[in-house]
Amino acid sequence: MSASIRESRRVYLFDSTLRDGAQTQGVDFTAADKLALAGALDRLGVDYVEGGWPGANPTDDAFFAEPPHLETAKLVAFGMTRRPGRSVQNDPGLAALVQAKAPVACIVGKTWDFHVDVALEIPRAENLALIGDSLAYMASQKSEAHFDAEHFFDGFKANRDYALACLAAAQEAGARWLVLCDTNGGTLPHEVSEIVTAVQAALPEAALGIHCHDDTDNAVANSLAAVRAGARQVQGTLNGLGERCGNANLCALIPTFALKTDYEVGVDAPRLAQLTSVSRLLDERLNRPADPAAAYVGARAFAHKGGLHVSAVAKDPRTYEHIEPGLVGNERHIVVSDQAGRSNILARFSEIGLEVDADDPKVAALVEEVKAREFQGFAYDGAEASFELLARRALGQVPDYFELQRFRVMDDRRWNARGELVTESEATVTLEVAGRQMMTVSNGNGPVDALDKALRKALLPTYPQLESMRLTDYKVRILTPQAGTEAVTRVMIESAGRNGRWTTVGVSTNVIDASCKALIDSIFWKLRREGLKEPGVG
Ligand SMILES: CC(=O)SCCNC(=O)CCNC(=O)[C@H](O)C(C)(C)COP(=O)(O)OP(=O)(O)OC[C@H]1O[C@@H](n2cnc3c(N)ncnc32)[C@H](O)[C@@H]1OP(=O)(O)O
Ligand SMILES: CC(=O)C(=O)O
After folding, report:
1. How many whole angstroms from 183 Cα to the centroid of ligand 2?
2. Could you tell me if 52 and 77 lie in one domain?
3. Ligand nearest to the Cα of 92, by number
4. What is the dihedral of CA 233, 270, 250, 136, to 10 degrees?
């Protein structure tokens, strides 16, 4: 059975996001998160979903008491070998594993003599008994028992015979997979290759797996090296979540196997196209921003910025893309910045639906304007809405919805009669809208909030569409810190409404003025997106 596994090109994917991923600092899954992610992993086509450690915490107990229904993946419950001095029948950890409603158990055991001596503090022979007994018991209780050989690579380097004896004990006890773990993550690809090859020679009947940590940024490379040397199960996590620096990133490994090797994985083309959304689902569940630079699935993975790149991509994307982004559910993006040439601008025009003649002198003028503004500190590659306005203004497509004539902001910090510290901001704006001059005053939770409220108060009677708009993010960056309090400041504002989310930018030596510019761009973009073709027609 295992010899045929090794000879085949099929690689079995084992996801540990919900177990090793839960060991990431700052990650705290709820049972609902686990259910949602297990379902997504099943639909993606992984072979095993490791749901957690029953008996270790109430979330994992709840998850295994009412596990998700998985269509193709097998649910795995994780645990450790029996405690020294206990029989398998009397070990509470193994009892929790038996009770867990999962067909597969994965048992971690020590294979590094140093750990047996220092962490377990038991004779080395006793550890072999712990492994053999625990795997035999689990193999009798579950449809599959896997052995996670903890610290295998360090153990093999320190005491090859003992590390191999640990694997043999698990194999003889009926372990379906022997998973070689680079627990401390310090092993390099050439070492993984040599050691997996040596294990294959020593245990020719074993079905080997690999579990790598990313402490030298080599977890993906190490996993590939192990498979090339004969391993056929690969453990990893979505977005490389996991203890310390994380585990091998399945969002990189899955497309690499599927698109770049002749190994087979259970993720066919339609499933692979879900990869980006599964990766982002994890970040949504963790309430954290997705890594834009992530291989294959990051927002920048197929973003083209340099003029030379964009000009060639417009002719054929293969010039600067290693795969077609749609294969992994990602998309191409053309970025506009001071690295841009005419091709970037033309490509961005077509992305935002602008029809222009490539030889129109307005295009050349816009390239120059973008470069000049980026020199001042504007950043259009993160502020697509401001770029769109700039471009449409250059082509005469943005009505003068209103004109801000003046604003004044006052901050008040004082102790009230009850002895509490109070901070308040008040903004006054004067603007012309629909031929009328308006002056409004608003208080806010800080000067930008007050300004935002005063602007809306003046504009809402004419443009009720602004009611649905809200600020969702505000970032300030000092561009010339050497100038001290006179430094140039860049403000990026993210807004949201029924038109989705959009980002605008403002630059000034005055942080409130920079914020005001970004706010005004945000409002103009919203009004244009609402289809208002003339000022004052709300
Ligand atoms: C390499 C890995 O990533 S393995 C997975 C690691 N993940 C986790 O630890 C997360 C979940 N863990 C937990 O919730 C807890 O550690 C529990 C519930 C499993 C155990 O908690 P406790 O009983 O309080 O033990 P604690 O965590 O303090 O220490 C671990 C004990 O297990 C022993 N141990 C460690 N590995 C093994 C093993 N493979 N087999 C048997 N015993 C082991 C240690 O020697 C230590 O024993 P001691 O308390 O007699 O010194
Ligand atoms: C089992 C495991 O997570 C490790 O050894 O890293």
Report:
1. 5
2. yes
3. 1
4. -30
Percent of the chain with pLDDT over 70: 98
Angstrom distance (rounded) from CA 114 to CA 56: 25
Instruction: Find out whether 215 and 185 touch, Cβ atoms under 8 Å.
Output: yes
> Average pLDDT, stretch 419-438?
94
Residue in the structure block whose two tokens are 């220092």:
118
> What is the predicted ipTM?
0.96
Q: E strands within 303-385?
A: 303-304, 333-334
Same domain, 372 and 409: no
Could you list the residue range(s) of the whole structural domain that residue 238 is in?
A: 2-267
Q: Report pLDDT digits (tens) over 163-178.
A: 999 999 999 999 999 9
What is the whole-number distance in angstroms between the Cα of residue 253 and the centre of ligand 1?
29
Residue 402's nearest CA partner among 490, 461, 467 is 461
The pLDDT of residue 375: 81
The amino acid at residue 46 is V
Query: At which of 356, 374, 394 does a domain end?
Result: 394
Give the helix/strand (H/E) hosting 505: strand 500-508
With a CB cutoff of 8 Å and minimum separation 6, the contacts of 315 are: none
How many domains in the chain? 3
Query: Alpha carbon of 462 to those of 44, 439, 525: distances in Å?
Result: 49, 14, 16
Are residues 19 and 93 part of one domain? Answer: yes
Candidate from 25, 28, 60, 80 with most ligand 1 atoms within 8 A of CB, to mutate: 80
Q: What is the pLDDT of residue 1?
A: 45
Residues 346 and 469 both lie in one domain: no
Distance CA 393, CA 248 (A): 47
Amino acid residing at 380: Y
The closest-lying atom of ligand 1 relative to the alpha carbon of residue 83 is 41
What pLDDT score does 537 carry?
56
Give the distance (Å) from ligand 2 centre to CA of residue 209. Answer: 12
Alpha carbon distance 314, 456 (integer Å): 41
* Domain contains 276: no
pTM above 0.95? no
Contacts of residues 60-64 at CB distance under 8 Å and 24 or more positions apart, as own/partner, are 61/96, 62/31, 63/18, 63/31, 63/34, 63/35, 64/99, 64/100, 64/101, 64/102
**In this predicted model, what pLDDT tens digit does every residue of 88-126 receive, in sequence order?**
999 999 999 999 999 999 999 999 999 999 999 999 999
Write out residues with Cβ below 6 Å of ligand 1: 20, 23, 53, 56-57, 80-81, 83, 108-110, 119-120, 130, 150, 183, 243
